[in-house]
């Protein structure tokens, strides 16, 4: 199957309460938002805070944790009842739950994430909380317009980028989860199962892999993760 036939994104028939999302977001604004650690991958201010993380630490914003790492609610999550209600809607194990804030004028450079498509057994959901019409979220060769309270799956194995060219910060609730029977029912109601196939290897260029390795090795908790070994193997096999 070619990459053109793979499901790159889905907008699910789910609508959360945009006002209640903003209300919970307001409870987080006095907390410490952490600049994303991949400083070479963006310009401007791109920050995060965790709602589920290793040891319940809201400042641990890693999305890809070492194998067998357990996560738990952060103190911040306990203060946000609607975020909790949203999470309870989804019946799958979570790998991370974060708020990601792309401030005015900031840009996330084109990149891919490692094996985070539904066909890989794990996936990413976006629930916009605050956005504006001048957000340019480009996935593959398409611009996605995501509105507050909606729920989107994005296959971030494909090259994607985001630019905030508006006048207000963009904040999304971003959930990384593990595929199970409940999610199969949700996903396959919107797209045929056959459309969830691995992205062809050439989507990951040498430049992308090098950037991913630099990002992972910059964090002591990820330096020895199996992902690093796999990416180094890919790089050697293509050189």
Architecture overview:
- There is one protein chain.
- This protein has six helices and 13 strands.
- It folds into two domains: 3-199, B-lactam Antibiotic, Isopenicillin N Synthase, Chain (Jelly Rolls), CATH 2.60.120; 204-239.
- By secondary structure, it is of the alpha+beta class.
- The radius of gyration is 17 Å and the shape is globular.
- Strands 1, 2, 4, 5, 6, 8, 11 and 13 form an eight-stranded antiparallel sheet that branches. Strands 3-7-12-9-10 form a five-stranded antiparallel sheet, with no helix packed on it.
Name of the CATH first level of the largest domain: Mainly Beta
Largest sheet properties: 8 strands, antiparallel
Poorly predicted spans: none
| CATH 4th-level superfamily of the largest domain | B-lactam Antibiotic, Isopenicillin N Synthase, Chain
Shape: globular
| Beta-strand content estimate | 25-35%
Order of H and E elements: EHEEEEHHEEEEEEEEHHH
Distance between the termini: 25 Å
Gyration radius, to the nearest Å? Answer: 17 Å
Please give the count of helices.
Answer: 6
Number of strands: 13
Mean pLDDT: 86
Count of discrete domains: 2
- Which CATH-level-2 architecture of the largest domain? Sandwich
CATH topology of the largest domain: Jelly Rolls
Fraction of residues in H or I helices: 10-25%
Helical/strand content category: alpha+beta
């Amino acid at each position: 199957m070619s990459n053109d036939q793979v499901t790159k994104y889905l907008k699910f028939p789910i609508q959360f309460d945009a006002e209640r999302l903003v209300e919970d977001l307001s409870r987080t604004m006095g907390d410490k938002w952490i600049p994303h650690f991949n400083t070479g991958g963006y310009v401007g201010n791109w920050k995060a805070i965790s709602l589920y993380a290793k040891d319940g630490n809201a400042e641990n914003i890693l999305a890809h944790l070492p194998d067998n790492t357990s996560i738990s609610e952060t103190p911040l999550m306990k203060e946000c009842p609607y975020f909790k209600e949203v999470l309870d809607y989804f019946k799958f194990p979570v790998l991370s739950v974060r708020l990601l804030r792309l401030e005015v004028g900031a840009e996330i450079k084109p990149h891919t994430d490692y094996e985070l498509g539904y066909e890989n057994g794990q996936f990413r959901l976006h629930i916009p909380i605050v956005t504006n019409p001048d957000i340019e979220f480009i996935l593959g060769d398409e611009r996605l317009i995501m509105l507050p309270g909606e729920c989107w799956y994005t296959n971030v194995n494909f090259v994607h980028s985001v630019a905030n060219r508006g006048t207000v910060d963009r904040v999304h609730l971003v959930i990384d989860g593990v595929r199970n029977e409940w999610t199969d029912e949700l996903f396959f109601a919107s797209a045929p199962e056959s459309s969830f196939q691995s992205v062809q290897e050439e989507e990951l260029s040498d430049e992308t892999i090098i950037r991913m390795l630099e990002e992972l090795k910059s964090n002591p908790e990820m330096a020895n993760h199996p992902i690093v070994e796999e990416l180094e193997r890919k790089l050697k096999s293509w050189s």
